[in-house]
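Quick one:
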Amino acid sequence: MALVTELKKERRNAMLLGAVGVAVALVLVILYFTQSGEGDLPSTPTGRAATQARENLTPTPTMGVPTPPSPPPSAAPESKPAVEPAAAKPAVVKTLLTKKTTLWIDSKPITHGKDTPLEVTPGMHEVKLKLGKKSATQKVEFKAGGEYELRFDPKNEKALMKKLK
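Output:
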């Protein structure tokens, strides 16, 4: 009789530990599928955004250091160049990617639509594509006013960039 009660206790303990193990496994699976991944990494602005960020910075006065007086409003403004340089036309990138493909340009996550072309500042950029566990990173130079087509070959893990214009 003592042996039967001992076996019942062992069975109950085994069932309890099994249920706890299943619960822990379920929590780990949920955490795995809900993690946000690389898209949340902070990035530094580049291109036009960096220029605007630098222009918006204003020096703050420090303690004990006097600030120079501002010129009177009636003073003539500084002379500006007669011809202002024209802003470079952005490059247009058409994405031929699935909705599940994640796209980063210069470490910034980019939301892409099937019919919405992306405008990218001219110059050298790093393009990263990821679909599931497959990813590809490629440095690409975009020319001002150029049109490009971006595809992802997950089988060979390559980003395929084609210049249209």
